[in-house]
Amino acid sequence: MMAENSVDPNSKHQRSPESCLDRISQLPDHLIEHILSFLPTQDAVATSILSKRWYPFWTKLPVLHLQDSTRCETRRQTRVKFKQFVSRVLLLNEAASLHKFRLDCRPIYEPKCFNTWVCSAINKGVREIDISISTTPKHRFLKLPSRFFQAETLRFLKLSGGVLIDIPGESSVSFPSLKTLHLLYVNIANDESLGKLFSGCFVLETLLLKTDYHENTLDIKLCSPTLKSLSINLRFAEFKLEINAPVLEYLELEESYHQVSFIGNLSSLIEANIHINYGISLNQLIRVLYNVKLLSLASYCYSEPVPHGYAYPLFLNLVQLEILIGLPGWDVLSHLLTLSHNLQTLVVENNSTIDSRWTEPEYVPTCVSSRLTTVSFKVFQGLQSEMQAVEYILKNAKVLEIMQICTLDMSQDSKSFVRNRLSEFQWGSKTCQVAIQ
């Protein structure tokens, strides 16, 4: 006999419609709006058909992600529908302000249409803008309107692809709240436009600039008293670059620069990644990088005569150095070891098949004899200069704990040869472990 409140597992019970409601629909309105903000706007709008309660949610979203399709390029009707959709979304949006406006499209829309979309977002007090224009053979770019450069609430700006930055002489730039700026492979009309853009970012802290080709040679003068992080990659482009950023903490320079110069020192710099091709001298690098703790350097820099009586600053804060040995050889590494008294970790990569001469320091550097604990040789080829460098460090590094040698397509016989040579070397550290990979 069953208890009074027990349930027969074989019996069929019909649930009321209320009990079948999904869990998301039972959430408060503000949580549903938050969830929808992670979806592309087209998908968020599509949820309006679920019920009357769901209909208004998409009109209150503070995050808009608008993206066209490949069919917009070939089908006029699809293109017209996308234009109407974007215009309707911006017109009916009731959010107090926009947190983020993201637009991914092709440069196939009329400038008036594009300008209206962008200005609508700015007029709604948008905080973040991410515009990516996919270039096509027939259409290269879309020009940003003058109103765009007067966004007082903007904090984050990312421009990618076929975006044209052309700021006429009579126009001004004012981004009083902008802290992060990313310019990725955009079109820059001239020096003046880029200079105006930088000068109008009054509180800028992070700048990322990448480009792979430019028709004109640009003279970039970057002066920012607030900039803390700077990453620049100008591949295959002819630029002159002048940097004046007294509170900079992170610096990344990559690829080819025809001329790089620094105004003042970088006493606040903590980390630097410098991979450039003959655009700067070693003396100049040492003068501006001396305060770093972490340094990655491709030694394509050239040497120049040192003025009589000039003393290089010491790298007293440097604890980790990663260096790429190029055609100039090992001189740069030898020099930096002498200046870096507190270096603990050293990573060396030799990408040159030319067996340049290992340059032994005039005296054993302080870091080698009493600080260096970890050394790694990457892309090790077994060249004579590499073996000499390994021998020097093993002999003089008295507190060395581990040395890693990562070989490049080296046969087992060659690895055995390297091991035999290492066993013949004098080791200054009794606890050092050597791993050949």
Radius of gyration: 30 Å
Overall mean pLDDT stands at: 83
Report, as a whole number of angstroms, the end-to-end distance. 74 Å
Summed up, the helix count is: 11
Which shape, going by the Cα principal axes?
elongated
Q: What is the number of strand segments?
A: 21
Q: State the low-pLDDT regions, or none.
A: 1-7, 16-21
Helix content: 10-25%
Strand order of the largest sheet: 1-2-3-5-7-9-11-13-15-16-17-18-19-20-21
Biggest beta-sheet profile: 15 strands, parallel
Could you tell me the strand content as a percent range? Answer: 15-25%
Structural class by SSE content: alpha/beta
Describe the structure.
The protein has 437 residues and is α/β, with parallel strands linked by helices. Among the domains are: 25-61; 314-437, no CATH class. It contains eleven helices and 21 strands. The protein has helices at 29-36, 41-46, 71-74, 76-92, 111-123, 191-199, 282-289, 331-339, 366-370, 384-396, 412-424; strands at 63-67, 100-105, 128-133, 142-143, 156-161, 163-165, 180-184, 187-188, 206-211, 218-223, 229-234, 239-244, 250-255, 259-262, 271-276, 294-298, 320-325, 345-350, 374-380, 402-407, 433-436. A 15-stranded parallel β-sheet has the order 1-2-3-5-7-9-11-13-15-16-17-18-19-20-21, with no helix packed on it. The protein has a three-stranded parallel β-sheet with strand order 4-6-8. It has a three-stranded parallel β-sheet with strand order 10-12-14. α8 (331-339) links the parallel β17 (320-325) and β18. The termini are far apart.
